[in-house]
Design goal:
The chain contains eight helices and nine strands. It is of the alpha/beta class. The protein has one domain: UDP-N-acetylmuramoyl-L-alanine:D-glutamate ligase (3-Layer(aba) Sandwich), CATH 3.40.1190.20. The chain has a nine-stranded mixed β-sheet, sandwiched between helices. Strand 7 and strand 8 form a beta hairpin. Bound molecules: pyridoxal-5'-phosphate. The site of pyridoxal-5'-phosphate has 18 residues, from strand 1, strand 2 and helix 7.
């Protein structure tokens, strides 16, 4: 059995964060373990509270896993503060385990899941350790200080990530306006770049999409797929999860992890 780990925040509403990651791991046949960085009080209408976990206890959870399990891949989601980022980066630095960084910053409802002061720690401490980073366009802009207007800007942004030490960048194009398609741009250092296009699905129930996508990549990488294959399979999985969206709650429902 392949064991993978998510280091992320809890979503009490069950659609994003740790809960989305563990459901995705289960669905894709890997054994999921977790390090919780923050609790959120949350439902499909939005986030009503954030309670960060003390960094010592975040590290304690991580050490407990490392002392016992052979972990095949790790993903990070909501990390909230620079102290937490530095704490976990320090531990990951000594490991030789593929790391997928989903640089979660702001929930769709506008609530902050990463303090502004933590962006620099993400850039300088965590990204240099990342095998794959999966920013959406606002996250890519915040992490590189550059604006994306055209495709050529994406290539430049990918170079910025490569310079930090990242091996593969996926820029998720879901935020691009006027597009009939959701296009994601993939850049692999010293290798190929390609885009993945899928028809844009008209639904409001997309809560947790980013978490689920990066969790699926983690599951596939943990099973030994190549970076390229893991990304392509994860894209298929997230497309199905959005197509079979769950209309639960009174707000933006989640994607369907059982699709
Ligand atoms: N809550 C947690 C704990 C998350 O990690 C995330 C996303 O990464 C969200 C909420 C936001 O989910 P969404 O913006 O997809 O609604």
């Amino acid at each position: 059995m392949h064991i993978v780990t998510t280091i992320a925040g809890s979503d009490s509403g069950g659609g994003a964060g740790i809960q989305a990651d563990l459901k995705t791991f289960q669905e894709l046949g890997v054994f999921g373990t977790s390090v919780i960085t923050a609790l959120t009080a949350q439902n499909t209408l939005g986030v009503t509270g954030v309670f960060p976990i003390d960094v010592d206890f975040v590290e304690k959870q991580f050490h407990a896993l490392l002392e016992d399990f052979s972990i095949a891949a790790i993903k990070t989601g909501m990390l909230y503060s620079s102290v937490i980022i530095q704490g976990i980066a320090h531990i990951i630095d000594d490991l030789k385990i593929p790391l997928i960084v989903d640089p979660v910053m702001i929930a769709k409802g506008g609530e902050s899941l990463l303090q502004q002061e933590a962006i620099e720690a993400m850039r300088m401490s965590l990204l240099p350790l990342a095998t794959i980073v999966t920013p959406n366009i606002p996250e890519a802009e915040a992490l590189t200080g550059r604006k994306i207007n055209h495709f050529s800007d994406m290539e430049e942004i990918a170079q910025c990530f490569f310079q930090l030490g990242v091996q593969c960048v996926i820029i998720k194009g879901g935020h691009l306006p006027n597009s009939l398609y959701a296009i994601d741009y993939v850049f692999i250092k010293n290798d190929k770049s390609f885009s993945m296009q899928s028809p844009r699905i008209s639904t409001e129930n997309t809560h947790g999409t980013g978490c689920t996508f990066s969790a699926a990549i983690t599951a596939f990488l943990g099973q030994g797929l190549s970076i390229e294959k893991a990304i392509i399979e994860a894209k298929k999985f997230i497309q199905l999860a959005i197509m079979h969206d769950l209309d639960i709650g009174n707000g933006h429902g989640p994607t369907n992890h059982f699709a």
